[in-house]
Amino acid sequence: RIFDEQGHILNTLPLSDKNTNVTLERQTLVDLLKSYLDDELFHFNHKVTHVESNGTTGTIHFKEQSAVQVDMIIGADGIRSQVRQSVQPKNKVQYQGYTCFRGIVDDMDMLKPIADEYWGQKGRFGIVPLLDGRAYWFATMNAKENDMHFKKFNKPYLQAYFNHFPEPVRKVLDLQAETAILHHDIYDLKSLSTFVYEKNIVLLGDAAHATTPNMGQGAGQSMEDAIVLSNVLKKYDTLESALKRYNRLRVKHTRQITKRSRQIGKVAQKANGLSIKMRNRFMRLLPRWVMKRQTQLLYRTKSE
């Protein structure tokens, strides 16, 4: 649900009735995925400096360890990817004009498993229910990149900043531990025309298509990438054919999601009073089926 800063509902964004939607902490997901792999497959504290390939053999260079040679390099090293920097040095992250605070609280006791957002002139606040009475929250405010004003924000600053927002927002901030608030600016990545380079270097997740968090699709699209890549490697006889199919399935789809997420952020972060009145009025008049179409793109994906 989307509310204005007085708590009046602007609209609802229904999810697909045919799919199960689960929200869990990132660390829980990481631990779950790791549990299916043998410990010897992990090599921690290996900082990649760059990669290269002759089209047949890929070489990964590390800051401290010796380089290794492999048949294929999968760059899944995030928005600041060193793998992407090696193959696309001119591609840069794009600051989106707002900064974000995040946290997780206990004992929220939300009555329904419904995610809520509150859109106001000074910023936006979201609350997402987790398991066992916990809740994830985020707050976004328009800001300059690396804005020193917001770098000094702590719990009391946030409480004062959002003091005029509805009771659920104030309750979340009251419950939040002082030392467990995360803060970072919001970026995305200029769309790439391909995720495959030198025949055997492939980008995956944020390294390929980092997006703003407005649709909650960062980790989701990364997992879709991994599933598709695994499936095509099993299905096709040659690496070239498999990666060509991966490109076809993932580049256009993730580009659309990144673009739409960026657009949602621009609408939600409006700060001009007249623009906000026009936006809120428009949001209230939008039919439910139009809102539902905003999420249908997420389900139009192929696994191989």
Automatic annotation (TrEMBL):
Assigned keywords, A-Z: Coiled coil, FAD, Flavoprotein, Oxidoreductase
Required cofactor names: FAD
GO MF term (any one): FAD binding
Organism superkingdom: Bacteria
UniProt xrefs under Pfam families: FAD_binding_3 (PF01494)
InterPro entries in UniProt: FAD-bd, FAD/NAD-bd_sf
Sections of the chain in a coiled coil: 229-256
Gene3D superfamilies: FAD/NAD(P)-binding domain
FAD-binding domain span: 43-261
Protein name per the record: FAD-binding domain-containing protein
Lineage, top ranks: Bacteria, Bacillati, Bacillota, Bacilli, Bacillales
